[in-house]
Amino acid sequence: MIIGEIGDVxxxxxxxxxxxxxxxxxxxxxxxxxxxxxxxxxxxxxxTSTSPFAMRDxxxxxxxxxxxxxxxxxxxxxxxx
Length: 81
Description:
Blueprint: E1 2-6, E2 12-16, H1 18-30, E3 38-40, H2 41-44, E4 53-63, E5 66-79
Antiparallel strand pairs: 1-2, 3-5, 4-5
């Protein structure tokens, strides 16, 4: 990931890199999937505790910029009890 500051008059912090690109593509994809909350399976596997949200396996999904796509899960808004 690359982080930088740009601009002379109006400064902005910018983030670039694979992680940011993947997050942007998941956000685009979330507009077309029921429920609208998505995460990569790889990101969800990094958590050591149980997710407070029910997850739906959406399988391998094509995203712009990745030839092989990524494994995606849907997160249901209802919190598990």
